[in-house]
Amino acid sequence: ESNNSLIVGRNQRAEASRPTMAFLFGPRCEVGIQFDKAEKRKKVEVPKTSSTKEFLYLFHGKENVKGKVVVRPKSRIEHKGIKISLLGVIEMVYDTGTPFEFVTVDVDLSPPGVLETDTEFPFDFVKVNKKYESYMGINVQCRYFLRFDIEVKNSLANVRKELGFWVHNYQVVPEINSGIKMEVGIEDCLHIEFEYNRSKYHLKDVVIGKIFFLLVRIKIKHMELSLIKRETTGRGPSQFNENETVIKYEIMDGAPVKGECVPVRLFLCGFDLTPTYRSVQKKFSVKYYLNLVLVDEEQRRYFKQQEITLWRKK
């Protein structure tokens, strides 16, 4: 890349906003938004479309968002004011209406006046609470971006530029993190007991456990363990659930016998995981489940799901 500080995210072309006939005026200026010390800031690869990806600069929690906007007018611009905004929005794929804004912070950069020469406008958003992580899901996305606006005087075509960025939030180590132990089965046919060492795991953790066969009167062919990601959007009759198998391993091949113990070791590192999100602004949730599946010789499947909590470790 020739200029790391000018990476542009979703919907980030410098362009006029689009009232009727605005296209007749063409672009009045070139606009570039640059983050402070961008060359030292980590970037995250995120999907842009179904077939393309982009790189967005990464910020954490209450970290300040600081930088400058460079404006290069192509002609004299009389304006009613210049501002930049930091926004956090939730957008539903199936809802084409206005995105839900949960963070909106505006900073005025210039009072009404005239732009004739190249001008830099520094900005600094201090201690803005970016309490939700950025998320790109199947039916919903939670994203953050900067929006720069010049309200042009006596014109239908204002100037707007947007630049997206990505947010991660580190979480504290859970104070209570007890193990999981359950007995499940089919009466007089199958009785198993499974244990997992914890109920909460960080994103690079290892799930360790064991499965005990207390009663086996079914011809088991194999057993597999998977991690299911469940994205829930909406509420009531308009609620949607999307299940995605993130990890899947065969942990046993062949028929077990009574008293047998099968160890479990599931590595989470290296997979595209997010923390668990619970009712974000009552718009969406993301939960994870360990799914234990036994398959018999007649291809019948017996399964048991157990929710676990994922969190981001610093």
Structure notes:
The chain is mostly beta strands. It is 0% helix and 59% strand. The protein is built from no helices and 22 strands. The protein has strands at residues 15-16, 29-35, 43-47, 53-60, 65-73, 77-92, 100-110, 113-115, 119-125, 135-136, 140-152, 159-168, 180-186, 190-196, 200-202, 206-216, 220-233, 240-253, 261-267, 277-280, 284-296, 301-311. The strands form four sheets. Strands 1, 3, 4, 6, 7, 8, 10, 11 and 12 form a nine-stranded mixed sheet that branches. The radius of gyration is 26 Å and the shape is elongated. The model is unreliable at 1-25 (pLDDT under 50).
Q: Which parts are unreliable, with pLDDT below 50 for 5 consecutive residues or more?
A: 1-25
Main sheet?
9 strands, mixed
Percentage of residues in helical conformation: under 10%
Q: Report the principal-axis shape.
A: elongated
Topology:
Blueprint: E1 15-16, E2 29-35, E3 43-47, E4 53-60, E5 65-73, E6 77-92, E7 100-110, E8 113-115, E9 119-125, E10 135-136, E11 140-152, E12 159-168, E13 180-186, E14 190-196, E15 200-202, E16 206-216, E17 220-233, E18 240-253, E19 261-267, E20 277-280, E21 284-296, E22 301-311
Parallel strand pairs: 4-12, 15-22
Antiparallel strand pairs: 1-12, 2-5, 3-4, 5-9, 6-7, 6-8, 6-11, 10-11, 11-12, 13-14, 14-16, 16-19, 17-18, 17-21, 20-21, 21-22
